[in-house]
Amino acid sequence: MLLRILLSSFALLMILSAGTVAQQSSARVSRQRTGAVPTAKDRLAPTSQDAAIAAALKEISAAQIRHAVEWLASFGNRNTLSVEQPAASGHGVAAARDWIKSEFERYSKACGGCLEVALDTFIEPPADRIPKPTQISNVYAIQRGSDPENSKRIYLVTGHYDSRNSDTLNTTDPAPGANDDASGTAVSLECARVLSQHKFPATIIFLAVAGEEQGLNGSQHFAKMAKEKGWQIEAVLNNDIVGGNQTPGDKLQDLSTVRVFSEGVPAAATDKEMSMLRALGGENDSPSRQLARYVQEVGSKYSGRTFHPTLIFRRDRYLRGGDHTAFNQQGVAAVRFTEWREDYNHQHQNVRTENGIEYGDLPKFVNFEYVAKVARLNAATLASLASSPAPPANVRLLTKQLENSSALVWEPSPGGLAQGYEVVWRDTTAPDWEVSKRVPKGETRITLPMSKDNKIFGVRAIDTKGHRSLIAVPQPER
Ligand SMILES: [Zn+2]
What is the pTM of this model? Predict the structure, then answer.
């Protein structure tokens, strides 16, 4: 009897919940005016954590980050033009360069030589903020992917280690650059220290550049070099001013979030691509924007309830620039992480007190716990990307025939890690992907009942553990 009651309540429950689904579906049908729309279960659900990545993130330490920021500030003035001061003096950008290199080498020693540490040194010719030919060095460490085929894909994290005070050309007075951008350099270093203890099929590069304050010189050189060498950089995370500035009495800083800026119209788009973009409304779907959405998804998976990225659909802050743009100009997907609210008294300022206001970019204004949260978000993104299969290749939306359904085709994800695909879509006015549908392994096409004119589609590859690739947006095939 009891069993019968239980069974009948269960049946009632099923009818009720089926009713709810039916209501939701019918609401969607009337809105979309399509036939077989996806059911509620197709809504883009949060994906589960990778336990190894979650464990690695726990190793990221605010104390380590504090050590790096204070150490970098101790070089006094890291203006790019101070390079003539000998590194042995412990003052200037050359001393900072050598220290960053020695840190990467120390981490490499701790992982049995798993990092290839190198300098990218060049002479920058005179320009606006460079009075004479100046030697600039980028410092980087490569953690080569463990899978020969997938190690061709590179994911990169960067920050700039040069600094400035009120005068862009001043190389002697204090320019501690704790927030701008020892904080971002510390993110690169801490990601290297922690992720080098783990293995990933794809390659990660940890980078610290100079010349940012003189005109993005270091990142421009590195991005061009990478292109010339044929390095397949698939994503760049640029951290610049991620210190969570805390001015006593400031109640408007928000330490629960970090802004992630991404370009909409790609800086490197060709005329043909621009014309397609204008015709189809692709200005919200650049590779950099997909990367930003990836960061958002990773954040919801790993950052917990107390911290989240805020996507800003704009290349950078008003009329200001950063190193991610140098990569964008070479056609590479790149985003910028910056704290919620900047304090302009604490950047690009001579260290001084005037009318009771403290000016200068000092370590005491940096919130190291906050920088650690930003570093965890970066590390989670890098680890997820470097664990994931490559995106499917040559994704196309078939447009030869006029029809009210949408047929997508693609070529398999190269590298052999993919165990299937996921097609995602959203309304043209929606900021992020809304719905997903799994496509079984071996299949590389799908026809969906809704009209391509009313949706934006994307396809990504998934491996057995649920790691997702970046999303590839289809090109029309006529
Ligand atoms: Zn900066």
Answer: 0.91
